[in-house]
Amino acid sequence: MKRTDRSFPHVLLVNPWIHDFAAYDVWAAPLGLLLLGALLRKAGASVAYIDCLDRFHPRGPRTDPARRCGRGPYLKTKIPTPRGLEDVPRTFCRYGIPPAWFREELERMRKPDVILVSSMMTYWYPGVQETIRMLRTAFGATPIVLGGIYATLCRDHAEQHAGADKVITGTCERRILETLSEITGTCLSTAVDTEDLDALPYPALDLQRHIPFVPLLTARGCPFSCPYCAAHFLSPRHRTRRPENVVEEIMFWHRRYGVRDVAFYDDALLVDPERHAIPLLEGLVARGMPLRFHTPNALHVRHITPTVAGLMARAGFHTVRLGLETARLPGDPDWDNKTTLEEFRQVAATLLAAGFRKEQVGAYLLYGLPQQPFAALEQAIRTVKDCGLTPVPTYYTPIAHTRMWPAAVAAARYDLSADPIYTNNALWPCVRGGYQWEHLTRIKKLVSA
Asked: Helix 277-287 vs helix 306-315: angle between axes, to the nearest 10 degrees?
């Protein structure tokens, strides 16, 4: 499509629905998509945004984001369970606004020149498909570009099944300008060095109907290589921002929009603490802003010293998650070595001494790894509780391009390579016997006891 005038293109950004057995907004935002929106605006494009997961739609229930520190439930509608998952004794739903509301928004808006669609979990692709089908109905042959995690990890599947005209992978700030320039025939460029994280504009959070929290990255990539994690594939290099620039961004969102909750999306926030985390925390303490900080992606236990814990408490860290996962606890397989039981016990005592409450500090515990016995999870839960913290069981998602993928494929009762839908962690795909209510009930009782 070649443009016949010298105007810049109008770009529509879309965050698609989730199709799943369960979903809840735990500080989830399409940060990459909103960052592209900011970059496109800087390049001269006009940008619109529709969030199919919008918890603040004017026709939805009224919600107070501060009450849950920015989190909250999505609207949901029961839909048919995908073929092949009929044996799962759970209700399958579309999470997000009803299709009629989405259709009405599309009908009211200016026709875009290009549409960018994001994607997250690989097994959520049916929601991407439905979103793209509705965009096709509304805007015909308007080019649709798909990016994000599903597009990157399952590129071949996305190209064959998602319905987009083009699939782009990985972090794509530079390539998105080139791609849209090629599609529209208008040169889109900026003086921004897209390899310099400090040079990138702040994400276009203002495109949202409401900003319940600020999603924040102080770095990209991860220096670790856990066998179940795809961080290295998604972002091969570990790059950091200057701590003072991170503090300035937080101040901007708080002062301009009154946002109080900040969720760190980093995979390794505390790595190299003397040069990164400690100056950042000291800067936050010095500013004295009335904020609540959350770490849904987990912190590496070994970097939490008394100094770091004290600074976190003084800065206003409210929700702390520790990446215990598959550490060498009694009965666990030796999948990684992020920490030891002795180190974990010491860090638990350090955080509690710094003033954190048990309810604020949770330790992620992975269940459902290939060959992992249920007894190992039970023992890990007891260990975390004995340390005075809150166990947070999470369920393993087999991910392509990870070191554990071959073992997962061998152990799974589904053909994981055939369809990403089978990697859904709600299936417990690598657990013998699959998802079992009695096991889930026992897990909940152990956690709450």
From this structure: 30
Task: Give the model's pLDDT for residue 376.
Answer: 86
Distances from the Cα of 421 to the Cα of 20, 126, 290, 447, angstroms: 10, 8, 42, 29
pLDDT over threshold 70, residue 4: no
Q: Which residue has the tokens 């995690």?
A: 149
In this prediction, residues 407-418 reach a mean pLDDT of 95
CB atoms within 10 A of CB 333: 13
Nearest to residue 15, comparing CAs of 38, 39, 31?
Answer: 31
244 CB burial (10 A radius; 0-12, 13-18, 19+): exposed
Which tens digits make up the pLDDT trace of 10-33?
999 999 999 999 999 999 999 999
Give Cα separations from 19 to 61, 74, 156 (angstroms).
21, 12, 20
Distance in angstroms (rounded) separating the CA atoms of residues 370 and 382: 22
298 CB-side CA count, 13 A: 19
Give the residue, 8 or 93, on which the prediction is more confident: 93
Cα 178 to Cα 242: distance, rounded to the nearest angstrom: 27
DSSP state of 9: P
Three-class DSSP category at 14: strand
pLDDT at 202 over 50: yes
| DSSP label at residue 247 | H
Give the Å distances, CA to CA, from 244 to 168, 198, 256, 277, 278.
32, 10, 18, 11, 11
Helices (H) and strands (E) in the chain, counts: 14, 16
Over residues 65-101, the pLDDT tens digits come to: 777 899 999 999 999 999 999 888 899 999 999 999 9
The chain-wide mean pLDDT, for the chain, equals: 93
Contacts of 271 (CB under 8 A, 6+ apart): 219, 222, 223, 238, 277, 300, 303
CA proximity to 163, closest of 194, 139, 198, 187: 139
Query: How does DSSP classify residue 273?
Result: T
pTM of the model: 0.93
> pLDDT digit string (tens) for 143-155?
999 999 999 999 9
Length of the chain: 449
CB 176 within 8 A of CB 168: yes
The residue among 353, 367, 369 whose CA lies nearest residue 447 is 367
